[in-house]
Write a structure and sequence with these properties.
Layout (H helix, E strand, L loop, with lengths): L16 H24 L3 H13 L6 E5 L5 H8 L4 E6 L2 H11 L4 E4 L12 E7 L8 H11 E12 L5 H23 L6 H10 L4 H10 L4 E7 L4 E7 L1
Parallel strand pairs: 1-2, 1-4, 2-3, 4-5
Antiparallel strand pairs: 5-7, 6-7
Bound molecules: S-adenosylmethionine.
The site of S-adenosylmethionine has 21 residues, from helix 1 and helix 3.
Length: 242
């Protein structure tokens, strides 16, 4: 089994100001995170996670690492989708606690920074990340770490929000995403002290588009990247091969 650090790993760190702000925000919204995901997306997030697992055609032999795992929904989808051993990591202790509660002993969860992973080189067959890379302070560093811990030929699946290419659909969707979603999200969750659901659409707007993201994956060491838009381009799946 890979070594997974104890859940207090970052408790005393003082040199990760932005990372600490993000992890605290997720710790604060953790109790309502799952419920709001399903409510605000009308359960579309569940479908996207299942589709992500199906696209990997897992056969039970893989050792899979789910990065920025949060409350573990993508980790569970991967296990249910046929992955062998699944390990999930996130730097928000409260999110990891809920993931452990959800998955019992089917999945091993630990606290770790995606840009500084506590695993040996080439120790996983597959890595995944759902709605996580957009929050990375050092996106390229996170991609390099994912590439480092994968064996040659290993695959890295990135499920992330995107911006719909169709102008009319984008306008309708943006009204919901920029106005309605933050109102409901901040109200129900308390905003995580940082208005997490205002931060969500802002972070999506500031994030690279699918092709630029594909190039960043290649620059981090992956050789090929397949891109699949979901639900009119609201989200996107990248599968990069090392
Ligand atoms: C929007 S949540 C996604 C959670 C989960 N993957 C899902 O599909 O619901 C983003 C997660 O990324 C985590 N995160 C952000 N930056 C991180 C980093 N540098 N290292 C580890 N986790 C990070 C946050 O703590 C948060 O739990």
């Amino acid at each position: 089994m890979p070594h997974v650090p104890a859940p207090t790993r970052f408790a005393d760190e003082t040199d990760r100001k932005s990372g600490r702000r993000i992890s605290r925000m997720f710790d604060r919204i953790a109790p309502t995170y799952d419920m709001l995901n399903h409510l605000l997306s009308a359960n579309t997030d569940v479908r996207w996670r299942k589709q992500a697992a199906a696209m990997l055609a897992l056969d039970g032999t893989e050792r899979l690492l789910d990065l920025c795992c949060g409350t573990g929904d993508l980790s569970v989808a991967m296990k249910d989708g046929g992955a062998g051993e699944v390990v999930g990591t996130d730097f928000a202790v409260e999110m990891v606690r809920l993931a452990r509660k959800k998955a019992g002993d089917r999945i091993e969860f630990g606290v770790a920074d995606t840009t500084d992973l506590p695993f040996e080189d080439a120790s996983f067959d597959v890595a995944t990340v759902g709605f996580g890379v957009r929050n990375l302070e050092d996106l390229d560093g996170g991609f390099r770490e994912a590439c480092r811990v994968l064996r040659p030929g290993g695959r890295f699946l990135v499920l992330e929000f995107s911006r719909p290419p169709n102008a009319v659909f984008r306008a309708v969707y943006h009204t919901y995403f920029m106005i309605v979603l933050p109102m409901i999200g901040n109200l129900v969750s308390g905003g995580g002290g940082d208005n997490a659901y205002t931060y969500l659409p802002r972070s999506v707007m500031a994030f690279p588009g699918p092709h630029a993201l594909g190039e960043r994956l290649k620059q981090a060491g992956f050789s090929s990247v397949d891109i699949t838009p979901l639900t009119g381009g609201i989200a996107c799946i990248h599968i990069a091969t090392k």
